[in-house]
Each structure stands twice: as C-alpha cells, then as structure tokens.
Design brief:
Elements (H helix, E strand, L loop, with lengths): L1 H16 L2 E3 L9 H15 L3 H6 L12 E8 L8 E9 L7 E8 L2 E6 L3 E3 L8 E9 L8 E6 L6 E8 L10 E9 L7 E8 L2 E4 L3 E3 L8 E9 L8 E2 L3 E2 L6 E2 L4 E5 L2 E5 L2 E2 L8 E6 L5 E2 L5 E4 L7 E10 L5 E10 L13
Antiparallel strand pairs: 1-3, 2-3, 3-6, 4-5, 4-7, 7-8, 9-10, 10-13, 11-12, 11-14, 14-15, 14-16, 17-20, 18-19, 19-23, 21-24, 22-23, 24-25
C-alpha cells in the first residue's frame, strides 16, 4: 500500500508541474485537452507509472482544488469565412488531476455551439462579426472560472477583375487624353478607392485617372497600373494592355503670309510635326488654274490672269514620311486690278 501511494504521489507531483496547452491544428472528434494530456500520460507510462495511474481515482476529501485556465487566445486573430478558428488554451490543475476543457463558441453574443472541440469554422462571416470562445476546465469534481478570448472577423482583401483604357481604338495620337477604367470587387461590400500609375517606356509619367499624351511621341509605349483599396487593405496591382502611340500627322501652324511681287501672289506656309518628323511635303489639293506650291518649302505661288478676278477657294496639304497629313482651306480674292486680299475663311 505504501508503494502504491508513493507511485501516485510521484504521478501527482509530475502532473502538477505540467502546463496544459490545448489547440488543434484541425477539427477532430477528440477532446483537445485530452489530446494534450495524452502526451503527459505517455511520459508517465514510460516511467512505469502509466498503467497503475490509469486505474487510480483520487478521493475528494474536501481539499480538492479547482483547475485554472491561465490563458486563452484565438488563432488566427482575424479569421475569414471558411477559415478554421482555433482556441489555444493554457490550463493546469494545482492537484495534478487530469483536466478536460469545454468550449462555448459565440458569434455577436449568441451561442453557436458548446462542446469539447477547440476548433470551429464559420462558413459565412461579416467584417463586423465578433467571435468569442469561453473555456471552462474541469478535473471531474470542480471546474475553473470561465476564461474567454474575443476576435473580430478579418477584412477581406479587395481585388481587381479588369483595367482598360479609353479611347480604345488602335490609333492613339499625341495630345489625346487617356482615361483608365478599373473594375473591382470587395466581398465585404466596402467602397473602393483607386490609385493610378501611368508609365511610358517604363518611366512614371502620371498618377491621375486620366493622362494627357502631349508629352509622348510615335512609338512610345504607355500603360496604367491600378490598385484598389477598401479603406484598410490594398488589392494586388493590375495593369491595362500596353498602348503604342501612333504616328501624328503634321499640322499647318498659322495662316500663310502673303507677298505680292509684280502681280504674282506668294504665300509661305509653315508646318509642325508632333513626332519631330522633318521630311514634310506640301501640295495643292484644290485651287485656281496656275497655282503652284513648292513641296519642300511650302511656298504657294500664283499669277492670276485678268479673267480670274473673284473669290477662289484654295485647299493645301502637308504630310510626313509616313504618308499621313492634314489639309488647310482658305479663300483668295482677286479684284479687277489683280490685287489679292489676305487669305480669308481659313478652316
């Protein structure tokens, strides 16, 4: 009998020194506290105490002390729908008794389930939902005070489904304004705000929703990257398709200057090309008989005959080496003395 008491005293002392940590990596049908104590029991079995200790029951002589739950935490701290939530518990019994844990799970103050399971999964959760677990430890005779842990459901990250740019035609010329159109979702129904990053040839050129391409030229490649934010978290960035700037045709920059010499009219046109093309060519698209234009200098010349008095519509053009050009229209008025007035009705 004394040997039996010595063995039990050794078992009780060893158990009193052990701290019980309950927390399941996945949901099981076995009490998590019992699982944790199982490792202690196996240790005693290796020392030769396990078999006899399993058969021993402590008598309640009035001195039995209740177990104590030292600490309770929830993992993860901000769970998402469908994500297992684990209660991690530190508990022990001052008398070295085996401890069983009971878990009561609440959502927004309402009881969901009460069992010996330390893991729960909520298929649906709103961001405002609060999750609470209340834990009680028992040695079979007395129970601990209730210990609890609370956490709020986590914020779900917004995401972008598409980013496109308008105008969406194939010919984007210098000076056009591009507009980004992001499409995104937030499973918490949060309002989304977007940030923009425009890059041309890999260089940052704008951070607004719209971008003026006046600083670009033919062949430049432009793209916008968008990030959505729900007030807490950024989405992963998403990029639009890359746009290659098209050729921009030259433009006649001003009304021509008129010169009159010996009855011959001369008009000097000037043109500018947004892409910096220098190989520009001028021509007369429509004009009175005898009107000519130097294709390189842009000088228009005409010696009107006496029978050509009146108003004459004129259309001239300029084009670059890519064959793209613009036209310029104006009127030339010749009176009976062969004097011409300055170009009018330019358009």
């Amino acid at each position: 009998m004394m040997g039996r008491n010595r063995k039990w005293a050794a078992l009780a002392t060893a158990a009193a020194l052990a701290t019980l940590t309950a927390g399941c990596g996945e949901e099981t049908s076995t009490d998590s506290a019992v699982q944790a104590m199982g490792s202690v029991d196996q240790q005693f079995a290796a020392d030769g105490f396990g078999a006899e200790a399993d058969a021993v029951e402590l008598e309640d002589d009035g001195t039995n002390r209740a177990p104590v739950v030292r600490r309770v935490t929830l993992s993860p701290s901000a769970p998402l729908p469908g994500q297992p939530v684990r209660a991690v518990v530190e508990a022990d019994d001052p008398d070295g008794d085996f401890v069983r844990l009971t878990f009561s799970w609440y959502r927004n103050g309402e009881l969901v389930t009460e069992s010996g399971k330390g893991t729960i999964t909520f298929p649906t959760l709103a961001k405002s939902d609060r999750i609470e677990v209340r834990v009680v430890a028992s040695d079979g005779r007395r129970t601990s005070e209730i210990a609890s842990a609370t956490s709020a459901a986590g914020n779900r990250v917004p995401y972008l489904t598409n980013v496109y740019v308008t105008p969406d035609n194939q010919l984007i010329r210098r000076g056009e304004v591009l507009l980004a159109h992001p499409e995104g979702n937030d499973d918490d129904n949060d309002k989304l705000r977007f940030t923009y990053r425009w890059e041309a040839n890999g260089r940052l050129v704008g951070e607004e929703r719209s971008f003026d391409t006046s600083s670009l030229k033919r062949g430049d490649k432009v793209q916008v990257e968008v990030v959505a934010n729900d007030g807490q978290t950024d989405s992963s960035p998403r990029q639009s398709l890359e746009i290659e700037m098209s050729n921009s045709p030259p433009q006649i920059t001003q009304l021509p200057r008129m010169e009159v010499e010996s009855g011959e009219l001369r008009y000097a046109f000037e043109a500018e090309d947004a892409d910096g093309d220098r190989n520009l060519r001028f021509w007369v698209e429509d004009g009175p008989d005898g009107m000519q234009m130097d294709s390189l200098s842009g000088e228009l010349s005409w010696r009107p005959r006496a029978d050509q008095a009146g108003v004459h519509p004129v259309q001239v053009g300029v084009k670059d080496g890519f064959g793209e050009g613009t036209k310029f229209e104006f009127n030339v008025t010749v009176n009976t003395t062969t004097e011409a007035s300055p170009p009018a009705n330019a358009r």
